[in-house]
């Protein structure tokens, strides 16, 4: 069998960035014999994520995920990165947790004899988040809590504020990977992080104004304006920042609502109440999970208008990304309504991109798909929609668009 | 008409406690609305019951696997809803099933929805704790007071030490069910059982070491590896067993603490861990008369409590951490975070965690009644356990399979090792 000659290779290197492809090849196998490839990672909570696929070695005893089709398992067909995007958690209703980007995410790959189950070879792919020479600075300036990422090199660089979901805490991967493309990124926490309130009664835009002012003043940041990237709940915050604060040139909203949700938002003497949910529209799936897709009403109707963010006041460029199968809320509806409102006010500086069959958490490439999870605003496990392969392709496409969008509108084309 | 109504439990009215069944009704009128009910009396005489309203289909049939409950103890399609939604007839009672020899008898019945709810049909579900061929032997050797469950067949069987909660006495339910699934299980009491003292002021790890050695003797030398399964207070005992004793290959920690709670721990006559205590001032009362103790346990990471933290990085075996995200007894999820971080800091990788949103403190073998509150051994009062019935019940189903896979994976002898399922 010459088993000692079986190698599992990760190309070009076992060390890669989290958002980059790697090529997995197994060599030295018995030709035409079945081989199972397995991937596994353990997240920061200790939850195991796994994927596997059955292949057949070719006539030269090789399996090359770039060319060889999977015959079954977590995915089928030729899927160069299937072992990564198909990773699914052992514990139900779990999203991959990566607390900070100081360490890479290690994915262990194994090749097993398809008939006996014996492990033939294994290798680990270290998927990192920080580029060599990048600075990661935890921030506690005034009220601001978050982490600042500064790329290596002389700069100055365009600045971006990165905000995440209602769950609170701080999510660093996207901010760090974006910074490695040549941006100074402030991953901004606003809830349940360090000494920020655990259960605030409202949010105030002044906090975000402080963050915008701080970032624009950093010597490494070049103007004239900064960018903002948001997803889910933080979308309304991004839209409010763009509508009321100066110095924002480009705003990305991923699966967001064009009205304020969950917590009242204050700014000076204005109050945006949260859009009131319609409980009768909450459904249950066959498996007993909660489907809140239609729980939020049309923000332009009646009293709901008080929650609508007046984006016609904004002067920045907008990129709205919406998953057509988002079940957290009707992202498509809110994105098209936002575009309609801008159009009605004669604005031309917006784009809308939609992704059929993608779900709520459109994240960086190869972030494992999350189908359901505990929703802190609802107090129940909800379904998030989408299906793994389409979702993963959407993540790839969106990532390119986001980088292009910021490069174009924040003036970093020279890099 | 009534004699035509048939209530059936499939595949059989006799099954293991942790097995799902299909409840079907036939012989009703087309689209007749009825009440399906379940009730059971536990070993202490508390009556548990549930009821849900169903509408028969065009053929006068109901299939709980297919049809939704329209109202009652639960709604929606819930094949096992009548079991896990049962509530006791007095507050703050948890199902007491003291020994494994007697099955858990649940009476299912169909009633007319209107009027006095005349009974139309009934059947009794005999949910046994010991599978056919499982041997139960009380153990009274040396200091050990417990029960050994041996599965049928020739073995070798993966060996597990089952430690239960703080309350004292002996718990057999989980141990006998594990044995019914092919594990050799020793469940031991620490106090309040047989000739053991009624109460203790400290725990000696030597006792648990004796239990591990006894268990190893039962495997007749096929393997020295043992597993440990715990719940609540015994969680920290399981951590100590794994950290200080040899041959502990797989440890299941369920909603425990990362530090030694309530009772100081001794080993070879020396005190190795101080006791982390509750601060009664931080207990929050609730309307039902039960208390929320989630924030009442002192912080294990505080400097003055460092003596209670268990050095799990010393363990040579694997850990499975199971935590309910809505545990109100104490912050189980936070303890998992601490332990995961601690192991990672020491470069240890032999662990995995499973977290369940919406589940409460008492994660048990599935299909028992969800318990929102009951008497707390340390506090001496009823305590809220957290979670909500449906999510908690679903968590128990998932956890039960996960635990068995984990134990089998790490305890099976190499020759008997089968390919792990995906």
Automatic annotation (TrEMBL), chain A:
Keywords: Fatty acid metabolism, Lipid metabolism. Residues 19-141 form the Acyl-CoA thioester hydrolase/bile acid-CoA amino acid N-acetyltransferase domain. Residues 204-411 form the BAAT/Acyl-CoA thioester hydrolase C-terminal domain. The keyword Ubl conjugation does not apply. SUPFAM superfamilies: alpha/beta-Hydrolases. The active site is at residues 232, 326, 360. One of its GO terms (molecular function) is fatty acyl-CoA hydrolase activity. Pfam families: BAAT_C, Bile_Hydr_Trans. InterPro entries: AB_hydrolase_fold, Acyl-CoA_thioEstase_long-chain, BAAT_C, Thio_Ohase/aa_AcTrfase, Thio_Ohase/BAAT_N. GO terms for biological process: acyl-CoA metabolic process; fatty acid metabolic process. Belongs to the C/M/P thioester hydrolase family. This is Acyl-CoA thioesterase 22.
TrEMBL record, chain B:
Residues 18-141 form the Acyl-CoA thioester hydrolase/bile acid-CoA amino acid N-acetyltransferase domain. Residues 203-412 form the BAAT/Acyl-CoA thioester hydrolase C-terminal domain. One of its GO terms (biological process) is acyl-CoA metabolic process. The active site is at residues 232, 327, 361. It comes from the Eukaryota. Gene3D superfamilies: Acyl-CoA thioester hydrolase/BAAT N-terminal domain, alpha/beta hydrolase. GO terms for molecular function: fatty acyl-CoA hydrolase activity. PANTHER family: ACYL-COENZYME A THIOESTERASE 6 (PTHR10824:SF17), ACYL-COENZYME A THIOESTERASE-RELATED (PTHR10824). Belongs to the C/M/P thioester hydrolase family. This is Acyl-coenzyme A thioesterase 3. It comes from Oreochromis niloticus (Nile tilapia). The gene is LOC100693079.
């Amino acid at each position: 069998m010459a088993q000692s000659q079986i190698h599992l290779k990760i190309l070009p290197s076992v060390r890669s960035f989290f958002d980059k492809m790697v090529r997995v090849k197994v060599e030295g196998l018995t030709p035409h014999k079945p081989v199972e490839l397995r991937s596994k990672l353990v997240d920061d909570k200790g939850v195991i994520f796994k994927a596997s696929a059955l292949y057949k070695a070719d006539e030269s005893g090789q399996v090359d995920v770039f060319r060889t089709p999977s015959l079954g398992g977590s995915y089928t067909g030729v899927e160069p990165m299937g072992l990564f995007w198909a990773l699914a958690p052992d514990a139900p209703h779990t999203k991959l947790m990566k607390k900070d980007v100081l360490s890479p995410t290690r994915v262990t790959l194994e090749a097993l004899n398809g008939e006996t189950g014996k492990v033939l070879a294994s290798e680990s792919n270290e998927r990192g988040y920080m580029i060599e020479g990048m600075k990661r600075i935890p921030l506690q300036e005034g009220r601001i809590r978050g982490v600042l990422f500064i790329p290596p090199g002389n700069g100055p660089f365009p600045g971006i504020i990165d905000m995440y979901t209602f769950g609170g805490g701080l999510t660093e991967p996207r901010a760090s990977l974006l910074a490695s493309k040549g941006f100074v990124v402030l991953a901004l926490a606003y809830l349940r992080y360090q000494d920020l309130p655990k259960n605030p009664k409202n949010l105030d835009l002044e906090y975000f104004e402080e963050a915008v002012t701080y970032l624009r003043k950093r010597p490494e940041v070049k103007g004239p304006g900064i960018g903002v990237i948001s997803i889910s709940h933080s979308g309304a915050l991004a839209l409010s920042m763009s509508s009321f604060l100066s110095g924002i040139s480009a705003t990305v909203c991923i699966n967001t609502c064009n009205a304020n949700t969950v917590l009242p938002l204050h700014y000076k003497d204005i109050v945006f109440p949260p859009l009131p949910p319609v409980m009768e529209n909450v459904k249950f799936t066959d498996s007993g999970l909660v489907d809140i897709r239609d729980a939020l009403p049309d923000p332009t109707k009646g009293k709901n208008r008080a929650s609508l963010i007046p984006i016609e006041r904004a002067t920045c460029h907008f990129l709205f990304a919406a998953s057509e199968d988002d079940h957290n809320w009707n992202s498509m509806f809110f994105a098209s309504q936002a575009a309609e409102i801008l159009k009605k006010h004669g604005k031309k500086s917006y784009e809308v991109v939609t992704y059929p069959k993608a779900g709520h958490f459109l994240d960086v490439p190869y972030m494992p798909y999350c189908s359901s999870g505990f929703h802190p605003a609802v107090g129940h496990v909800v379904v998030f929609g989408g299906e793994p392969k389409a979702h993963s392709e959407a993540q790839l496409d969106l990532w390119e668009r986001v980088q292009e969008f910021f490069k174009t509108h924040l003036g970093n084309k020279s890099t | 008409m009534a004699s035509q109504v048939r209530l059936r439990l499939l595949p059989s009215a006799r099954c293991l406690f942790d097995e799902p069944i299909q409840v079907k009704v036939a012989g009703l009128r087309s689209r007749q609305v009825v009440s399906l009910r379940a009730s059971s009396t536990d070993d202490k005489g508390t009556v548990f019951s549930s009821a849900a309203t169903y509408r028969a289909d065009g053929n006068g049939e109901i299939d709980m696997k297919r049809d939704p409950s329209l109202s009652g103890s639960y709604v929606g399609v819930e094949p096992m809803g009548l079991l896990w939604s049962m509530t006791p007839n007095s507050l703050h009672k948890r199902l007491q099933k003291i020994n494994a020899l007697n099955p858990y008898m649940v009476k299912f019945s169909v009633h007319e929805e209107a009027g006095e709810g005349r009974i139309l049909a009934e059947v009794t579900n005999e949910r046994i704790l010991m599978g056919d061929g499982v041997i139960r032997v009380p153990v009274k050797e040396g200091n050990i007071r417990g029960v050994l469950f041996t599965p049928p067949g020739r073995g070798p069987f993966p060996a597990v030490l089952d430690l239960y909660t703080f309350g004292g006495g002996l718990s057999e339910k989980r141990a006998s069910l594990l044995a019914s699934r092919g594990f050799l299980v020793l469940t031991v009491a620490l106090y309040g059982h047989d000739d053991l003292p009624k109460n203790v002021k400290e725990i000696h790890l030597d006792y648990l070491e004796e239990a591990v050695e006894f268990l190893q003797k039962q495997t007749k030398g096929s393997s020295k590896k043992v597993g440990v399964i715990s719940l609540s207070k015994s969680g920290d005992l399981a951590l100590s067993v794994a950290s200080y004793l040899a041959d502990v290959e797989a440890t299941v920690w369920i909603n425990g603490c990362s530090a030694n709670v309530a009772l100081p721990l001794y080993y070879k006559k020396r005190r190795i861990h101080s006791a982390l205590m509750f601060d009664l001032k931080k207990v929050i009362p609730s309307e039902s008369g039960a208390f929320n103790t989630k924030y009442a346990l002192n912080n294990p990471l505080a400097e003055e409590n460092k003596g209670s933290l268990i050095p799990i990085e010393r363990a040579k075996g694997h850990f499975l951490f199971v935590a309910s995200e809505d545990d109100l007894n104490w912050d189980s999820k936070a303890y998992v975070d601490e332990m995961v971080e601690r192991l990672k800091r020491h470069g240890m990788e032999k662990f995995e965690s499973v977290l369940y949103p919406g589940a409460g403190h008492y994660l048990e073998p599935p299909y028992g009644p969800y318990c929102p509150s009951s008497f707390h051994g340390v506090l001496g009062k009823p305590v809220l356990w957290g979670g909500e019935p449906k999510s908690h019940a679903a968590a128990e189903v998932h956890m039960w399979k996960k635990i068995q896979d984990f134990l089998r994976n790490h305890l099976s002898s190499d020759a008997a090792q089968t390919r792990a399922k995906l």
